[in-house]
Amino acid sequence: xxxxxxxxxxxxxxxxxxxxxxxxxxxxxxxxxxxxxxxxxxxxxxxxxxxxxxxxxxxxxxxxxxxxxxxxxxxxxxxxxxxxxxxxxxxxxxxxxxxxxxxxxxxxxxxxxxxxxxxxxxxxxxxxxxxxxxxxxxxxxxxxxxxxx
Length: 149
What we know:
Blueprint: H1 10-18, H2 23-33, H3 38-42, H4 50-62, E1 66-71, E2 74-82, H5 84-87, H6 90-103, H7 117-122, H8 124-148
Antiparallel strand pairs: 1-2
Keywords: DNA-binding, Transcription, Transcription regulation
Organism: Marinifilum caeruleilacunae
Domain HTH hxlR-type: 9-108
């Protein structure tokens, strides 16, 4: 992995890792949609090309945002899960969602907005914690189920 950053700015450096069209979509799919295998991502409505998906998964893995493990029952299949570093992006994704709800919805009235967003907006810290805990439980059950198959 070559760490080439454009400059010393923390925002620009983060964008060098996460600022492309797909990285946050992949993380969102893992966190909120339970996607964990390559086919899960390619079957999504966002329609990411396989070569781009492969590159994004590799970059996210290289920077420690996701882990890749082999499925014990099928050594050709990888399971991708968020690391603690990846989960630390929960507040960013929630704030991005709320910003979109408040500023983009007028341009995209068909946007999917969860009915829990009002609660999330009023209880951000509790929401951040709950989302992370839910994912940790999901990840644990995913890895256990996959190992038991």
